[in-house]
Amino acid sequence: MTIVEATRTCFSKYFIFSGRASRPEFWKFVLFLLFLSVVATVANSVLFGPTVTQSFQVSVNSSREQTQGLVTHHSYNGGWIGLVVQLVTAIPLFAVAWRRMHDTGRAGWYVLLPIPAFAISFSIIFLTSQPVAIDQISIPAEFDIEETVRLPQSAALLLVAWLIAVASMICVIVWLARQSEPNRNRFDPPISDEEVVA
Predict the structure, then answer these.
(1) Beta bridge pairs of residue 71
(2) Which residues of 74-97 are buried (b: 16+ CB within 10 A; e: fewer)?
């Protein structure tokens, strides 16, 4: 299966979550999406230039000493073009990942595993953080910032939370990279070469 065939197949099965998707179908579609993302970033950067953002950063070290400063970021990203590309391709990517899980003998909802893992990690970070007052005197008038910022109190807990989230993503990637089940499974018969080319 070529990248063109994989892309055509995934877009023709835009909303189809049943059945199976072969390893080449999924990974070649992912490769196409990576290429499309680069094209969107280049196009947005050429047409609109870099995205410039200014932020006022406050850092607090372990002995509660604060450092503050105005930071200007110039970033080249997909911008509006990239956002449109992501919106158009999100559903077929999700659908082919769901079918790919079926092809390995797993339920499609395994693709969603990182979502609760990240939610749990963010909850741990939020619940274990405490408010720290920010020195408002040196903040420029055009910046309307909160008087306090929440900072995590335990680096170990923060590390554990992020490890859980990252481990869930690695599990999903490993499952998506597994070989197809050669025989019929509970989702469908195996994909034949004729079906892939058609």
Answers:
(1) 55
(2) eeeebbebbeebeeebeebbebbb
Q: Which residues contact 82 (CB under 8 A, 6 or more apart)?
A: 37, 40, 41, 44
Burial class (CB in 10 A: 0-12, 13-18, 19+), 20: buried
Give 112's DSSP letter: G
Q: Which residues pair with 68 in a beta bridge?
A: 58
Q: State the Cα–Cα distance between residues 103 and 106, nearest whole angstrom.
A: 7
How far is CA 190 from its chain centroid? 29
DSSP 8-state secondary structure symbol assigned to residue 15? T
Name residue, tokens 């299966």.
1
Structure confidence by residue, pLDDT tens digits, 64-96: 676 766 677 777 778 889 999 999 999 999 999
- pTM comes to 0.75
| Cβ-contact 42, 19 below 8 angstroms | no
CB atoms within 10 A of CB 29: 26
Q: At a CB cut-off of 8 Å and minimum separation 6, what does 86 contact?
A: 78
Give the model confidence (pLDDT) of 20-50 as tens digits: 999 999 999 999 999 999 999 999 888 888 7
Element (H, E) at 55: strand 51-60
Q: How far is CA 74 from the centre of its chain?
A: 22
